[in-house]
């Protein structure tokens, strides 16, 4: 019983990955919108883009980690 | 399900849990080998690879700078050569113009002399021709007068008249004039 | 060994996406001790060899007109050097060999992990936590050595209203200490997730009807993983540079 509950919890935690996907899409989309408005400034900001994506993705990875912990470690 | 397998694993004496990352028994091993790896890579990079690549890049930069300088030099030389060429071309053109003008003047002078000579000749010929024509005309007039006199004397004789030559000649000359 | 036990129990569809991460001794059986030569050792050694082949043997001719290998080595050098200079500032160039070491190790470990049947060292938290903690400790020490107590200005946001500053200070302090956590889990999580997903798709290939879909999915995932392998190495390195910039110039 407890194991099955953990599996349900893992599935719920995996929703967080989808949320991170929205976040990453937001970052990349806004970057693209800005880059199309001012293409000359885009190249200098790719590093910032990756940092932003990394921060957004980190939280999704946390939820993925929680899912894994619930799946395998509980 | 996974929990059951784990229980079974544990029962079998297998050490692997569901997530090997969380099996802390092997962390020490991994950390030890990771530190060894990092130290080796660090020394290889900082002692051998990075200085070498930096040197190569600097050398290439130097070569490129030198080549660019040489290229600038050659370009300046090329511009100089072009200028000299243009100057020579202009000189040659001016010389050619001068020669052409000279030749033209010479030819003009020759032409003028020849024309004058030809004109003089033509004039002489014309004068000669006119003189001849005048002579011929005079000859012809004289012949006409003679014929007319003879004819008049014959006509007078045929009419049964008698006329001395002097009178006939005077009459003919009179007629010829009028 | 573990696979056999699983397989014997279940039959039919077999999903063991995590078995590829098991650390086991290369020679013989038994517990994994501190100095035991394991598959971790093997693949880290291969990574070291790859770094040496690329960065040392590849550049051994020191040609002004580079060969292909030398071009790649110079590209990697220029890539990381420019990143350090642009993100962390000119005075961070002293840390360039250290950051280069991190980048080369992670990028080679990630790519070597993509070879079928290989072992991915960077998928283990043990490895990435050590890498991230090393960065964290280095950055903290450098910050205090270079700036002394002024390093604490990093947590005291001067541009914010005075009333908000203590709250912001607490938030900044928490985010500072969460840094190594997110820094390490991001790398290991990304790499592990990709490999596990590939394994799950591979498990579906046992059913004949879905196996073509499975093969296509694995191929697509593999392409994505190649991208992720590089991007995660890049992100780890650039975040190191960002943290280093904070340590060297805490006022902005």
TrEMBL record, chain A:
Topology in membrane: Multi-pass membrane protein
Transmembrane segments annotated in the record for this chain: 12-36, 48-73
Locations listed in the record: Cell membrane; Membrane
SUPFAM superfamilies given in the database record: F1F0 ATP synthase subunit C
Alphabetic keyword roster: ATP synthesis, Cell membrane, CF(0), Hydrogen ion transport, Ion transport, Lipid-binding, Membrane, Transmembrane, Transmembrane helix, Transport
Matching InterPro entries: ATP_synth_F0_csu, ATP_synth_F0_csu_sf, ATPase_proteolipid_c-like_dom, F/V-ATP_Csub_sf
Domain V-ATPase proteolipid subunit C-like: start-end pairs: 8-70
Identification of the protein by name: ATP synthase subunit c
TrEMBL record, chain B:
A Pfam family: ATP-synt_B
Molecular function as annotated in GO: proton-transporting ATP synthase activity, rotational mechanism; proton-transporting ATPase activity, rotational mechanism
Organism encoding this protein: Lutimaribacter pacificus
Family note: Belongs to the ATPase B chain family.
Subunit structure: F-type ATPases have 2 components, F(1) - the catalytic core - and F(0) - the membrane proton channel. F(1) has five subunits: alpha(3), beta(3), gamma(1), delta(1), epsilon(1). F(0) has three main subunits: a(1), b(2) and c(10-14). The alpha and beta chains form an alternating ring which encloses part of the gamma chain. F(1) is attached to F(0) by a central stalk formed by the gamma and epsilon chains, while a peripheral stalk is formed by the delta and b chains.
TM stretches of this protein: 31-50
Principal subcellular localisation of the protein: membrane
GO cellular component labels: endomembrane system; plasma membrane; proton-transporting ATP synthase complex
Localization per Swiss-Prot or TrEMBL: Cell membrane; Endomembrane system
Membrane topology annotation: Single-pass membrane protein
Alphabetized PANTHER family for the sequence: ATP SYNTHASE SUBUNIT B, ATP SYNTHASE SUBUNIT B', CHLOROPLASTIC
Free-text function comment from the UniProt entry: F(1)F(0) ATP synthase produces ATP from ADP in the presence of a proton or sodium gradient. F-type ATPases consist of two structural domains, F(1) containing the extramembraneous catalytic core and F(0) containing the membrane proton channel, linked together by a central stalk and a peripheral stalk. During catalysis, ATP synthesis in the catalytic domain of F(1) is coupled via a rotary mechanism of the central stalk subunits to proton translocation. Component of the F(0) channel, it forms part of the peripheral stalk, linking F(1) to F(0). The b'-subunit is a diverged and duplicated form of b found in plants and photosynthetic bacteria.
Top-level taxon in the UniProt lineage: Bacteria
Protein's name according to its UniProt entry: ATP synthase subunit b
Coiled-coil stretches noted in the UniProt entry, renumbered to this chain: 71-106
Keyword Transcription regulation set for record: no
Keyword Transmembrane helix listed: yes
From TrEMBL, chain C:
Name of the molecule in the record: ATP synthase subunit a
Cellular component GO terms held in the UniProt record: plasma membrane; proton-transporting ATP synthase complex
Parts of the chain that traverse the membrane: 40-58, 92-119, 125-145, 196-220, 226-244
Biological classification of the source: Bacteria, Pseudomonadati, Pseudomonadota, Alphaproteobacteria, Rhodobacterales
InterPro entries: ATP_synth_F0_asu, ATP_synth_F0_asu_AS, ATP_synth_F0_asu_bact/mt, F0_ATP_A_sf
Gene3D superfamilies (UniProt xref): ATP synthase, F0 complex, subunit A
Domain of life of the organism encoding this protein: Bacteria
NCBIfam families the UniProt entry points to: ATP_synt_6_or_A (TIGR01131), PRK05815.2-4 (NF004482)
Membrane topology of this protein: Multi-pass membrane protein
